[in-house]
Amino acid sequence: MKTLFRSLLAATLLAAPVAVSAQTPAAATAADTARIELNPALINAVNTQSFEQFRETVRPLIAQMADKKVVALGEGTHGTAEFYQVRFWLTRILMEEHGFRQVALENTYGSARLVDEALHQHGAPALKPRMQKHLLSIWQNQETAAMLNWMKEYNHRHNRRHHVSLTGIDAMFGTDDALLVQAGLSKRNPTLRPHIEQLVKSAAFQDAMWLHINDAGFKFDRKGWLSNGLAGYAAADELLKALPTARLPRIQREALELTLQNSRMVFDYPYQVQFHKRDSSRDSLFAAMAQLLVRKPGSKLIIWSHNAHLSRQSMDPTDNNGGGTGAFLERMFPGQYFVLGTSTAFGTFAATQQAFISPLSPMAAYPLPTPKAGSWEASLAQVSSPAFFFNTHQLGSQDVQRPQRLVGQTPTSTDQYGNYRLSKAYDALLFLRTTTAATPL
């Protein structure tokens, strides 16, 4: 069980007590708790009263993002309404004005694809039931729905060549991937059916384990998890090898390749444990999926995920998997990766009592405690502007290693901090002094 939870640390982000010690900095010294006085010249005040006012005040920030291949928009807390809203507005600007066509959530690729289907056709299925069925509960809120409804309206006003799409870079729940493969391959390619049936079976088995992992008295069947996962990985691998010769239109084949790549990632955890005696790196899987999504010339991608993933610096000082998603993406796209962190000091956020997040995890509002002394949040809360951003590479002597709060999806995660020099983690940081819990669908 220890191996499973260690490999899924990011999936249960800052939620389980076993993960606390690696992320909680040592007791601060007197010098560490001294408040940082930011140079006023660095502060760019942001107006969040309306989209139009916001757009004008973030022009310098957008200018830094516009020509990048991958722009990552982080969140310092899951479940914060204002973080969803400002990321929607930034996404809208990048899509309307700078040629970005994809936004990827911290969600399984195939599941996001099923939601995306509702964004491209008149009379398409309603968004709400698809969001509730296929998206993790951290995305099941009115703020995310506002972005998806805007995307749907945008697509209705533009021809197909200019459509914008929702996608996913995670690989947790695999049934949607497997069923998309089954629907795309079974009818025309009967010789592949045994592999398809195994993929569907393995995905259903593993998904059921993830859904029940929060149940009291749940007993982890490590042997069954390994054998099932290895069978699923092998089935996805065989289908990928056979795909080039499958009788399919080109566009459908390309979509199925991405689905199968993601489906194989779903079973990377048991594969790595069995064959390499190491934990799977969820951050490296995020980056690998992102790389696949932008492999066509001119492709660009916006990513929505937690700061702890998107940071170039791992939140865990003991990490030996190559860093966070941001570190992998920087190596993949040197100079073409931009990451914006977001942070807050006071207010409320939406969270679930379940340590393993799923589409069924119930969310409720909880208070954010006062930031700890010496943290970035404690200093940033003293700036006169209630909403602002700054370029972390301009901090100079103020660019010191301090605790930054990294709130996950559970109420108890509010005391979790990572030690960061902000310039090592992000290109820019957007701070909103007071925020509120996301609004459930």
First and last CA, distance: 34 Å
Report the C-alpha radius of gyration, rounded.
21 Å
Total E-strand runs: 11
Global shape: globular
Poorly predicted spans: 1-31
Helix-strand pattern, N to C?
HHEHHEHEHHHEHHHHHHEHHEEHEEEHE
**DSSP strand content:** 15-25%
Structural class: alpha/beta
The total count of helices amounts to: 18
Largest sheet: 9 strands, mixed
Core attributes:
9-stranded mixed β-sheet; 15% strand; 441 residues; globular; alpha/beta; 11 strands
Describe this structure in words.
With 441 residues, the chain is of the alpha/beta class. It contains 18 helices and 11 strands. It has helices at residues 2-7, 20-23, 51-57, 59-65, 81-98, 109-116, 127-134, 142-157, 175-185, 193-212, 222-242, 250-266, 268-276, 282-293, 307-310, 325-332, 376-380, 422-425, and strands at 44-45, 70-75, 102-108, 165-170, 301-306, 337-351, 364-367, 387-391, 402-405, 417-420, 428-435. Strands 1, 2, 3, 4, 5, 6, 7, 8 and 11 form a 9-stranded mixed sheet that branches. α6 (109-116) packs across α9 and α11 (222-242) crosses α13. The longest helix has 21 residues, at 222-242. The radius of gyration is 21 Å and the shape is globular. The model is unreliable at 1-31 (pLDDT under 50).
